[in-house]
Specification:
single chain; alpha/beta; Rossmann fold; L-fucose Isomerase, Chain A, domain 3; six-stranded antiparallel beta barrel; 14 helices; 18 strands; elongated
């Protein structure tokens, strides 16, 4: 997997009537801090004093798509240059002003007043923006800029994203419905249906030699393959090969798969383990042809630079103040607790392989879901800790303590009528998710 590296355009605005030496010193300190971020910068930290100077930078700023346009308000300026930048550069806009010492003497920068003036003009022009007023070496200011840049990178990647849908969601699973035109309009994501029968033919045509190589990979990750029905196991491994080739041929960033009942009744092998393997590869798969769940998992995959998991909330213990996230046996294997067993197993209801079985490793997690509950598109955001606990149920699962009482989280999930799938990834990625919701102009629903 590759690290998500945002591309940030940098412009510094100032007026020569203020203390430009102090302004440049402040900007240079900010620039040193910015260079510590995992980002590519377009632009230089020199002060620009007039509209012509700003206009001369626009060509560089528009040569390649930007994930963020960062305007350092070094001193007071009027709003002309900022509005011109917003009109010329197609990127989320972030304004950074710097506080200054209250010396009782000259107002050397007056930067926040410049941001205030720009914000009013941008608001009247209908141009969205974010801002921070913080010292040049303030970690909180840097964190806000970084989160916004990462959200901008996700926004850009979504506009380049293709999702394949293998079959249709099962009857009664309204939580897996999707509007392809709406997704294209809002996110830029394109969705391509894939006939289920044609996919099965592709799986059946996988060569035996390819199956042996895939089996070797699985055997290096989990134990117990020899105890399974070997014919059904081979059919399941063929599913992985077909998923991998479908994603590669179609240039799909993720796949939403009608994983039951036909994989069991017509093909004779489970899609669960193969979907987990795809997630480990960096190509998330959504169960039950859940397109929005797949996109949510993909967003977390990009933010965490690690596999993410499209899961079910299956148990809440209000006495223990914990919940269990589970889904059959298709979590990526890197989520496994290294101190616990990792086994091959069969589907708990259909009794066919291949499924993985392990408890999740402990650690901080982020929960996310692009939700259509109550007919309103929202981005659900939550957080918690996976605890070091024994396996709760067969398959893959983890015991989670939320950042608010478990009963309140359950009440929110049911009361808001949220979808039964929630994406999960390790790390705290909530700041970037909140910024992404603002960029997409949709509400963020705080689950925790």
């Amino acid at each position: 997997m590759t690290v998500l590296t945002p591309r940030i355009g940098l412009v510094v605005l100032a007026r020569p009537q203020f203390d430009t030496a102090f302004a440049q010193e402040t900007v240079d300190r900010a620039w040193r801090q910015l260079q510590g971020l995992e980002a590519e910068f377009i632009g230089t930290p020199d002060l620009l004093f007039d509209a012509d100077a700003v206009k001369g930078r626009v060509a560089d700023l528009t040569r390649r798509p930007l994930d963020l346009l960062l305007v350092l308000q070094a001193t007071f300026t009027d709003a002309v240059m900022t509005v011109a930048l917003a009109d010329s550069v197609d990127a989320p806009l972030f304004l950074w002003s710097f506080p200054e010492p209250r010396t009782g003497g000259r107002l050397r920068l007056n930067a926040i007043c410049g941001v205030n003036l720009a914000a009013h003009a941008l608001g009247r022009a209908g141009r969205p923006y974010d801002y921070v007023n913080g010292d040049a070496d303030d970690p909180a200011a840097l964190a806000e800029i970084e989160a916004t840049a990462r959200a901008g990178a996700i926004r850009r990647k979504l506009a380049e994203t293709r999702i394949g849908v293998v079959g249709q969601h099962p009857a009664g699973f309204d939580s897996c419905r999707y509007d392809p035109a709406g997704l294209q309009s809002l996110l830029g994501v394109s969705v391509e249906p894939i006939d289920l029968s044609a996919f099965f033919e592709r799986a059946r045509s996988v060569a035996d030699g390819d199956i042996r190589a895939i089996r070797d990979r699985v055997a290096s990750e989990i134990s117990g393959l020899d105890g399974l029905d070997q014919d059904a196991l081979a059919k399941s491994l063929r599913v992985y090969a077909a998923l991998r080739r479908t994603a590669d041929d179609g240039k799909f960033a993720g796949l939403a798969v009608r994983c039951w009942p036909e994989f069991f009744t017509e093909l004779g092998g489970a899609a669960c383990g193969p979907m987990g393997m795809m997630g480990e590869d960096g190509t998330p798969c959504g169960c039950e042809a859940d397109v929005l769940g797949t996109i949510s998992t993909l967003i977390l995959r990009w933010l965490s630079d690690a596999p993410a998991f499209n899961s079910d909330l299956v148990d809440v213990d209000v006495t223990d103040d914990t919940a269990v996230f589970w889904h059959c046996g298709q979590a990526p294997v890197s989520m496994a607790d290294p101190d616990g067993p990792r086994r091959a197993t069969v589907h708990s209801n259909r009794r066919l392989p291949l499924l993985y079985e392990f408890a999740f490793k402990p650690g901080r997690i982020t929960l996310a879901r692009l939700s259509q509950s109550k007919n309103q598109l929202r981005l659900v955001v939550g957080g918690g800790e996976v605890l070091k606990r024994p396996l709760s149920f067969s398959g893959t699962s983890g015991v989670v303590r939320f950042d608010r009482p478990a009963r309140e989280v359950m009440d929110a999930v049911i009361g808001e009528g949220l979808e039964h799938h929630m994406s999960l990834a390790y790390g705290d990625h909530r700041p970037a998710l909140r910024r992404l919701a603002r960029m997409l102009d949709i509400p963020a629903l705080e689950l925790t």
